[in-house]
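User: Quick one: structure for sequence A, then sequence B.

Assistant: Sequence A:
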Amino acid sequence: MLIVFSYLWFYMILGGVTGMDMFLEKFFPEVYVKKHQAKANNYCKFNSQLLQLFTSSLYLAAIVACFIGSICCKKRGRKPTMQIASVFFLVGAILNAAALNIGMLIAGRLCLGAGIGFGNQVKFKHIYQAVPII
């Protein structure tokens, strides 16, 4: 459940955060300037490859970590795989909370993505065990 909640949290909240002036001003100043210079076209405000890397880093790390998490789950079991996912989540949350620059922010997102990738290998098995069979 934690993995599902975390994934939905990152997916839904990220859009709001990347549009906030405070966030853009600190980590993406060129996008902040473009946002306030745009007159009518809302689609070209956030045209930044660095911002796109920040957004997609979570999903890229999750894709790669799914394969590694699958091997870990098969060889070690579900509990160690979930513990590894939890460590990735913890490290990613700490890095994002303490981010001073864009590098730390992307590193935190990569760790969170790895946590999602590892957790995805375990969550469905736990859901199947919790659902009553009719």
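Sequence B:
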Amino acid sequence: MQRELSDEELIRGFLREGQQAAFRTLFERHRRRVYAGCRVFLQNATAAEDATQETFLRAFQNLGRFVGGNFPGWLMRIAKNVCIDQWRRQKHQGDAGEEEFAKVHQGESLEDSIVFRLVTRKIEQAMTQLPDEQRRCLELKIAGYSYEETAVATGFSVQAVKSHLQNGRRMLWLRLSKVLDLEG
């Protein structure tokens, strides 16, 4: 009976000897975890499948850069970056939201509508100035993710997510209180 090769042994076999089966084994071993993380992050099965494929394509292309250590962690960082890239593309494609905005806010006065849009833009601008970790945690929280889902999507611990959210909210409040003349 053969023993199961470690991730490091499979990587060496793939890099040194070009063993395609070694990479296939890595894929089979880690694809469910990568898919689950992408699914939580993107909230869409098809997008998660695409992100999983892209993750393993990037891993395949960059496996020579892996310096050893925690292969699943390295793979999940790639998955996180792929998901963020997909999320940004979707966000930019969805920026035709002016029509949506008009439909939702038909009952408001023009002045209220303009103020709402200006405040929304100020919030978005202030969020871009936050550190990436805080901004990403806040974006996921705004989108309705739980602490646990945010932790899976970002690769942070639940405690780190809570900390990033608290610090991000504090920084956002400080920035917005100056810009929007809020009193705290």
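The chain has two domains: 7-91, 97-179. Residues 20-42 form the longest helix (23 residues).

User: Thanks, that's what I needed.
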